Structures are given as C-alpha cells and as structure tokens.
Amino acid sequence: MTRNTYEIPGQAGKLAVVTGASDGLGLEIATRLASAGAELILPVRNQGKGATAVDRIHAAAPRARVTTADLDLASLESIRALGDRLLSDGRPVDILVNNAGVMTPPARHETQDGFELQFGTNFLGHFALTARIFPLLREASARVTTLSALAARSAHCSGMTCSTRATTPP
Ligand SMILES: NC(=O)c1ccc[n+]([C@@H]2O[C@H](COP(=O)([O-])OP(=O)(O)OC[C@H]3O[C@@H](n4cnc5c(N)ncnc54)[C@H](OP(=O)(O)O)[C@@H]3O)[C@@H](O)[C@H]2O)c1
Which of 74, 75, 158 minimizes the C-alpha distance to 117? Predict the structure, then answer.
C-alpha cells in the first residue's frame, strides 16, 4: 500500500459530514468516501461551487447520496444554524472531517465574531461545529478528523507565546 493506492474500506450505511468539500482536499476526501458507499453532507459557503462538487462526485460515484448545506465557518451564527439543522434531523453522524480552511491571508481579516480569520475559521469554527453536533457524533461513536499542516511542527512555544521558525530565526 502506498499513499496513492490506499483504498477506503466499505462505508455503506455511514453518514459523513465533510467541510470544505467544494474544492481541494475536501472534494477528494468526499469523492473517496462516496465511492466507498458513505452518504455525504457537504456544508459549503458557496452553493454554486457546492453543486459543481456534487456533479464531480456523481461523475466518480454515480449512485452516491450527496447533499449540500450552508456553512460559513467564519460565522458562529452560521455554525449554530447548521448544527441546529443536523440536530433537528437527528441522524447520528459517523464521520466528521474538519477540512475547510484558509491559509495565511496576506492581510489581517476577522471572522464575523471578531477572531483572526485563519484561527477563527480553521480552529475555532471547527471546534464550535464539533461541539454543537457532539450528541450526534457520540451516538454514532464517530470518527472525527481535523486537518492540520506539517508547518505546525515548526512551532516553538515558551510560556503563552508561540512562534514558527519561518518568522523567528533560531
Ligand atoms: N493543500 C495543502 O498542501 C495543505 C497543506 C497543509 C494543510 N492543509 C490543510 O488542509 C485543508 C484543505 O486544504 P486545501 O489545500 O484543500 O484548501 P483549498 O483547496 O483552498 O480548499 C479550502 C476549502 O475550505 C473552504 N472554506 C474556506 N473558508 C471557509 C469558510 N469560512 N466556511 C466554509 N468553508 C470554507 C473553501 O470553500 P470555497 O470553495 O468557498 O472557497 C474550500 O472548499 C485546510 O484545512 C488546510 O489548512 C492543506
């Protein structure tokens, strides 16, 4: 087995929620899970891109059951709305992939709630989403996967202060 040939075992009967599946790694993860038989909910902030992603998943897995939902991880209100919708549906969630993210915006931007955009979206947003739907995850003994980056390994922390090698020469 190599990274390229890894086969996902059968996922029939499982419900998977994959964030950031309108593009990039998330779309590939969603496609692979759908091809393995999982039913998918793809929370996206751009429904046009979401529809294109669903078409691409169906091209690879014609019988896939895939729906999109609204989610802007840079808004706690949006996260709450998605969580409430899933809770009201009441379906246990077997797989949650916290994949969506922004990477080093060139200037400071903030989420709707005033957090720095990358921290607020990638970390706080997914933390809030996971916490909100925790009853559904617990009911299914879910697997929750959160994407990170190898860059995190270069961080140095001293007390409450962290920096990376890229910005702080040794
Ligand atoms: N690719 C790499 O080499 C690499 C390396 C290290 C870590 N990662 C991590 O892997 C994950 C995926 O990376 P990628 O390269 O596949 O990224 P990507 O191609 O830029 O895709 C990012 C996805 O996140 C979504 N997204 C961004 N902000 C959002 C928000 N506020 N609410 C909802 N969705 C939002 C985007 O939606 P839109 O389509 O609407 O923009 C898109 O679907 C990220 O967490 C990233 O930090 C990737």
Answer: 74
User: Cα(52) to centroid of ligand 1, in Å?
Assistant: 16
Q: Any idea of the CA torsion for 116, 121, 126, 131, to the nearest 10 degrees?
A: 50
Residue 34's SS3 state is helix
Does residue 146 line the site of ligand 1, with CB under 6 A?
A: no
User: Which range of residues forms the domain containing residue 91?
Assistant: 15-148
CATH number at residue 69: 3.40.50.720
How confident is the model over 119-150, as pLDDT tens digits? 999 999 999 999 999 999 999 999 999 999 88
Q: Measuring CA to CA, which residue among 94, 89, 79 is closest to residue 131? A: 79
